[in-house]
Automatic annotation (TrEMBL):
Pfam families: Transposase_1. GO terms for molecular function: nucleic acid binding. This is Histone-lysine N-methyltransferase SETMAR. PANTHER family: MARINER MOS1 TRANSPOSASE-LIKE PROTEIN. InterPro entries: RNaseH_sf, Transposase-MT_Hybrid, Transposase_1. It comes from the Eukaryota. The lineage of its organism: Eukaryota, Metazoa, Ecdysozoa, Arthropoda, Chelicerata.
Length: 150
């Protein structure tokens, strides 16, 4: 696009950009969303509260249980780089069938504490994590934490 607008070759534009101007072409880093000032302040306050609690009680970090959810595909095809092979000179490029990602997927919930995974569960097909299910898990893990630090 720059080369066309300046009526120059792509190679010349690339040389000027990289060697003369020391520019690099970088991909954008995706973030889920931007935070408001209020949200940023809340995160700072929460972090400070956690640090204070950890300073007061040496067992505090053992009481933290956190979790994550992830979609697990039934089949996840290799990337081109993962399936690359060394070939002899004169031999053609290896063939690879273009595969699409599986449409069958399952939600995996994993919960862990300072020692590692304490619970994992695959949700039924079509299920999603809702506030009600999260509340149910929160009650289960409150009991776990009370038991584990005694």
């Amino acid at each position: 696009m720059i080369a066309e607008s300046l009526n120059m070759s792509v190679g010349s534009v690339f040389t000027i950009m990289t060697e003369d101007l020391k520019k690099k072409k970088l991909c954008a880093c995706f973030v889920p969303h931007t935070l408001t000032t209020e949200q940023k302040e809340h995160r700072i306050a929460s972090s400070e509260d956690l640090i204070a609690a950890a300073d007061e009680d040496p067992n505090f970090l053992k009481t933290i249980v956190t979790g994550d959810e992830s979609w697990c595909l039934e089949y996840d095809p290799e990337t081109r780089r993962q399936s690359s092979e060394w070939t002899s000179p004169g031999k053609g490029r290896p063939m690879k069938v273009r595969a699409s990602k599986s449409k069958t997927k399952t939600m995996l919930l994993v919960f862990f504490d300072s020692r590692g995974i304490i619970h994992h569960e695959f949700l039924r097909q079509g299920s999603t994590v809702t506030g009600i299910e999260e509340t149910k898990f929160a009650r289960v893990f409150q009991k776990y934490v009370a038991y584990s630090i005694e």
